[in-house]
Write a structure and sequence with these properties.
Pfam families: adh_short_C2 (PF13561). By secondary structure, this protein is α/β, with parallel strands linked by helices. Helices cover 44% and strands 15% of the residues. The chain has helices spanning 17-28, 41-53, 68-82, 106-134, 155-175, 201-209, 219-230; strands at residues 8-11, 32-37, 57-62, 87-90, 137-142, 180-187, 241-244.
């Protein structure tokens, strides 16, 4: 038995990559995990089945996290099954354009900003009543090193995630007195994710060469940092950012 046993963790975008790795790790630490997904029902079911095969508890929940009504419906289903959400890991990645600013429309830049903040707003609003009621909660947002270290073509994602990081700091200040911590995990390039697929092999080689630890991150590396923020070990940490990039960028 651990302090995590019985806690309910909602992981958005948990059917693959970082989200799936995080769901599996939190379940292994005794949490009951909600595997949120939008389109990949089969993949989400596989994550749930894998957790249950290891003796953990999981349920899948389809919802577009950009839509408040869908998120609220998901939270109702979770409450009916397990009660309120104790831990929110907001990992879901909304679409974005990869192109130079000069070629970008406002709908592409502004649309990504709107999607990013709308999703964070909706899921956070939905889980706060239960966390506030019990005087305990953990909120972890997945950011990106691109919010601090620009890379060609990534202005939409980097700008949107920079807004998310500042949003997290404001929430950390406001929610601290309620016993709720808010932190951000900012990975660098991560293997076996959708973002990794947009990188060419030459670009990957350059990134590995620029990384003191000599490789790109795996989803499990990022999940470890998320799990730390989701547990009791980080109880006196809020408003902080963990860079999981092997030393590629240091701040």
């Amino acid at each position: 038995m651990t302090e995590a046993t019985g806690r309910v963790a909602l992981v958005t975008g948990a059917s693959s990559g970082i989200g799936a790795a995080t769901a599996r790790l939190l379940a292994a630490r005794g949490m009951r995990v909600v595997v949120n997904y939008l389109r990949s029902a089969t993949a989400a079911d596989e994550v749930m089945a894998g957790i249950e095969a290891e003796g953990g508890q999981a349920m899948t929940a389809r919802a577009d996290v950009r839509e408040a009504a869908a998120v609220e419906g998901m939270i109702v289903r979770v409450q009916e099954a397990w009660g309120g959400v104790d831990v929110l890991v907001h990992n879901a990645l909304t679409p974005y354009a990869i192109k130079p600013f000069q070629d970008m429309t406002w709908d592409e830049l502004g649309g990504k900003l709107d999607d990013e903040m709308r999703a964070a707003f909706a899921v956070t609003k939905a889980v706060l009543p239960a966390m506030t009621g019990q005087g305990w909660g953990r909120i972890v947002y997945l950011g990106t090193g691109l919010s601090r270290q620009p890379r060609e073509g990534m202005i939409a994602l980097g700008t949107a995630k920079a807004a998310l990081a500042q949003f997290a700091r404001y929430l950390a200040q406001e929610l601290g007195p309620r016993g709720i911590t808010v932190n951000v995990v900012e990975p660098g390039p991560v293997e076996d994710t959708r973002m990794a697929n947009v990188l060419g092999e030459e670009q990957k080689r350059r990134q590995v060469a620029a990384t003191p630890l000599g490789r790109l991150a795996h989803p499990a590396d990022v999940a470890q940092a998320v799990a730390f923020y989701a547990g009791e070990e980080s109880a006196f940490m809020t408003g902080t950012t963990a860079a999981v990039n092997g030393g590629m960028s240091m701040y």
